[in-house]
Amino acid sequence: MEKDIYKIIIDEDTYNFRDNSIPAWAKEPNKPSYSASDVGALPVGTNIPIIQYIANESSMPETPTEGILYLIGEEPLISFTINNTSYQAVEGMTWGEWVESEYNTSGLKIIDDYIWTESGSNTIVKDEHDSSSKVTANEMIESNFTYYQFASGGSSD
Fold it and tell me: What span, in angstroms and rounded, lies between the C-alpha atoms of 93 and 61?
């Protein structure tokens, strides 16, 4: 049995194609609808609190800010290495946040959205043999991962 031919118009150009993967229900004019609870999502308008860690109960503000969930204790930390040096970061921290934090004990910095050594001679990469695996400032730090310094000449320090 031959399937329908569909047309797609992109920027005034028409393309014909056959797609055997479109199920029959998807071609019907009345599509099914689902609620947030049907798919395990939060309902529209749900306020998700911001988490703020405080040292102890006496550190709680007199007037707590609406939308902030105060947790007593230390922020959960992860560990990672660059070459053979171990570092810590707050769980969920991006490289950009880490560079600007107290955890950056080696003076790494951001240059053109990439993470570089203090001298600017080496970039931080995920794969010691691949200079294109540079770490970006908005990338999340991976727990228990080994990163490398990559010299512009092509070898890691």
Answer: 25
